[in-house]
Amino acid sequence: DAKTTQPNSMESNEEEPVHLPCNHSTISGTDYIHWYRQLPSQGPEYVIHGLTSNVNNRMASLAIAEDRKSSTLILHRATLRDAAVYYCILKYYNQGGKLIFGQGTELSVKP
Amino acid sequence: GAVVSQHPSWVICKSGTSVKIECRSLDFQATTMFWYRQFPKQSLMLMATSNEGSKATYEQGVEKDKFLINHASLTLSTLTVTSAHPEDSSFYICSAREYGFRGPRGGANVLTFGAGSRLTVL
Fold it and tell me: Mutate which of B109, B117, B120 to test chain A, going by most A C-beta atoms within 10 A?
């Protein structure tokens, strides 16, 4: 199974951009790259997903490397409410749609 | 957007008793739901896949008789922790697949998660 590698933790200042990296060197051609985040004591929430092209939505942007072996989640202006654990997950369509979580990156935001 | 509700949000029980946790999809039908557990400072661990009208599929190492899953309708799945012991104390989280959900996320089988249920076994 293709794995993802993320830094254990990152720090950011409020209102500054944050770039959260994810390595997935063994990604297969049909794997989507999904990002979820989990705020303290809550269930995870969907952030963004992509396949090959960069993606933007109201929460964040996803930059995918041309060889798809890495991706970066971009929060354009971090707020205190963005402090969470961010998970980069490869979505395997041949496993019934389930998500396998890695360790994620714990993002702290300083005022 | 899609909402998944879990109940109870927290529960305390005595060792040896059974506890039921409900997971409901409020505004969409979920033929498939997933159950996770999470220990403090750890990631989510997938326990089982719950399929409406059929038996759940358990991940390796998860005891089927210990964690009973029932998915009797398109909007409700339940997890029953039988004969709970202190080591079963954990944060249990369900999720449902937004299959066919209208909108830009619908085609990617995005999962919507419940808020979680914290179980403490004394």
Answer: B109
Q: Tell me the two tokens of residue B9.
A: 């949000």
B84 to chain A, minimum CA–CA distance in Å? Answer: 22
pLDDT at site B120: 97
Distance of CA A69 to the CA centre of its chain: 14
B117 interfaces chain A, CB cutoff of 8 Å? no
Rounded CA separation B119/A100 (Å): 22
Mean pLDDT score across all residues of chain A: 92
Q: Environment class of residue A21 by beta-carbon count within 10 Å: exposed (0-12), middle (13-18) or buried (19+)?
A: middle
Model confidence over A50-60: pLDDT tens digits? 999 999 999 99
Residues in chain A with CB shorter than 8 Å from the CB of B43 are 87, 101-104
ω before B8 within 30° of 0 (cis)?
yes
> Quick check: helix, strand or coil at residue A106?
strand
- The separation between the first and the last C-alpha atoms of chain A, rounded to the nearest angstrom, is 39
Q: Which two tokens stand for residue B28?
A: 């969409």
Q: Does B116 touch chain A (CB under 8 A)?
A: yes
Contact list, B34 vs chain A (CB under 8 Å): 98-99
- pLDDT value for B29: 86
Q: Is the pLDDT of residue B78 over 80?
A: yes
B53 band by pLDDT with thresholds 50, 70 and 90: confident
